[in-house]
Design goal:
It contains 7 helices and 19 strands. By secondary structure, the chain is an alpha+beta fold.
């Protein structure tokens, strides 16, 4: 039987009593899925998973995405997107600057991701302390706390989500490699509700983010910019946030409808960080 221990923040819970390297029976899986819907981010400590086991457990939730940037995936595993600062043979083994801005994974897709499953292989350590925390914010709690006037402004309003705008944003480092024409064609700008309904819980979720949302449709440019900036500041307030301090073997699942996240980039080589992510396919927001 699993044990679910809430984090004490607006979201997040720790789950013990299950070894994800082994088949998970239906009753246990339902308890895990229920915990994800309730707590929005769930953490399984001290897991030891092969790539095959990571993928196999992930597929219990549904179909997996193959990331657009296959050059940043684990060789031979198109479902495993690598997030790492490690350089081998003069090339990065994964995405070196993922998570610089608050975002929800694949929010720019026609069918944004349902969730992400992230496994920690190597964690940067300094003076015996882990670096590279991840911040998660609850978009359900953030929406509930909005003033009524803002809720009326957002009611049934669409927002523009642009992968290209997010990809080309300045990240205080070397510019990213240019996207090919084929890559750009795969990710056109997309209109989604600024507030979406969670398909499992029915709760309202803010669905705009500083990384990829560029416009609120139907508002004048200045008003759109002002409202978005206010929302971006609102959603990252401490009262909505859970900060995860990583340990090797941590396996996290987060809900991409109900949350946003951002990396804390407070480390650099020779401190090594290596993580791998599978991404669940989702459905069109409503």
């Amino acid at each position: 039987m699993i044990t679910v221990t809430p984090s004490g923040a607006a979201l997040g819970a720790r789950i013990t009593g299950v070894d994800l390297s082994k088949p998970v029976d239906p009753a246990t899986f339902k308890a895990i899925e229920d915990a994800l819907h309730e707590h929005e981010v769930i953490v399984f400590p001290e897991q030891r998973l092969t790539p095959e086991q990571h993928i196999s457990f992930s597929r219990q939730f549904g179909e997996l995405e193959e990331h657009l940037r296959q050059d940043r995936c684990r060789p031979g595993y198109p479902e495993l997107f690598v997030v790492s600062n490690i350089i081998e043979n003069g090339k990065p083994i994964g995405s070196t600057d993922a998570g610089f801005f608050w975002h929800s994974d694949l929010c720019y897709a026609a069918e944004p991701s349902r969730g992400s499953l992230f496994y920690a292989h190597e964690i940067p350590m300094q003076d015996g302390q882990p670096k590279g925390d991840t911040l998660f914010a609850s978009m359900t709690t953030a929406y509930d706390a909005l003033p009524d006037e803002t809720k009326r402004t957002l009611h049934e309003r669409k927002a523009v989500n642009s992968y290209f705008a997010g990809y080309t944003r300045e990240r205080n480092g070397a510019p990213r490699a240019a996207l090919t024409a084929e890559q750009r064609a795969k990710v056109p700008d997309m209109l989604h509700p600024a507030v979406r309904t969670h398909p499992a819980t029915g709760r309202k979720c803010l669905f705009v983010c500083e990384a990829y949302t560029t416009e609120l449709v139907g508002l004048e440019a200045q008003e759109s910019s002002t409202v978005l900036e206010q929302l971006f500041e609102h959603l990252k307030e401490d009262r909505f946030v859970y900060r995860h301090r990583w340990a090797p073997g941590d396996f996290l699942i987060w809900d991409n409808c109900a949350t946003q996240h951002r990396a804390v980039i407070d480390y650099e080589l020779p401190l090594r960080r290596r993580m791998e992510r599978t991404t669940l396919r989702g459905a069109a927001p409503f």
